[in-house]
Amino acid sequence: MKRNRFFPKAILLAAVGALLTSSSAFAALVTWELNPGNITGNVGSSSRLYTVSGSSITARGYDNVAGPDTAHDLYYKFENPVGGATEIGLGLVGTPSNELNINPDGSVPHYLQLDLRSILSQGFTNGEISVASLQNGEGYRLFGSNAQGTLGSQLAGTWSGLAFDNKFVSVPNFGSFQFLSVAAISGRVLPVAFQATPVPEMNALFPIVGLIVAVSSTQILRRRRAARTAS
């Protein structure tokens, strides 16, 4: 009898645990590959819209110049690995190796900017970015901006070398800016993909909530019957 008495509580605890972990179970990462077709060639535009599972981001290329930054056509790159580093991603037309480069004085000549406004309005969290073509001695940095076509303020952290080649890293202070810019800090780099976590759909939580309600209602009825019997 003791086993039967504790069984509803065990179910309730299991349901609560499932509810607490449901955000990760029902909100899988959405990944936007910047060269989804694994092709090589001019994109034909300075911007490219990417839509996955109904959610969109836009990539744009810019030259970092005095005054308003000017648009720079995008370039799909797909080549064999070089020096152990991946050479697949989204670069710029006419730059060395069609990638993001750095000026000799360390300043940023051009950058790739991701427009995150749409997914931020949908409540996406935990943004991460992957950048490739990171041979040893090559690296990149990130900038956050609230103005399209403006490089923005540099975020904390730099990533360089094969250890970070084509690896997702967390975007610092994600959600506090609408645009994310990627620029080289050394050598030549190639953005690969962006990913983030969506808000879980409520209909995915309904079965778990229903289970909790059902178990709780059963326990309440049992207590009432027990109380009537005792009186």
Total number of helices? 4
Largest sheet composition: 7 strands, antiparallel
State the CATH architecture of the largest domain.
Sandwich
Number of strands: 14
| Strand residue percentage | 35-45%
Mean pLDDT: 86
What is the number of independent domains? 2
- Whole-angstrom Rg: 25 Å
| General shape | elongated
Query: Oligomeric status of the shown chains?
Result: single chain
CATH class of the largest domain: Mainly Beta
Low-confidence stretches: 202-206
Structural class: alpha+beta
Structural commentary:
- The chain has helices at residues 2-20, 22-25, 117-121, 202-230; strands at 30-33, 41-42, 47-52, 55-63, 70-71, 74-82, 85-92, 110-115, 125-132, 139-145, 153-160, 167-170, 179-186, 190-197.
- The protein has 231 residues and is an alpha+beta fold.
- It folds into two domains: 2-21 and 202-230; 28-197, Jelly Rolls (Sandwich), CATH 2.60.120.
- Strands 3, 4, 5, 8, 10, 11 and 13 form a seven-stranded antiparallel β-sheet that branches.
- Strand 3 and strand 4 (55-63) form a beta hairpin.
- Helix 1 (2-20) packs antiparallel against helix 4 (202-230).
- It is elongated, with a radius of gyration of 25 Å.
- 30% of the residues are buried.
- Mean pLDDT is 86; it is low at 202-206.
List its traits:
single chain, 231 residues, alpha+beta, Jelly Rolls, 2 domains, 7-stranded antiparallel beta sheet, 39% strand, elongated
Short structural description:
This protein is α+β, with helices and mostly antiparallel strands and 231 residues long. The protein is 25% helix and 39% strand.
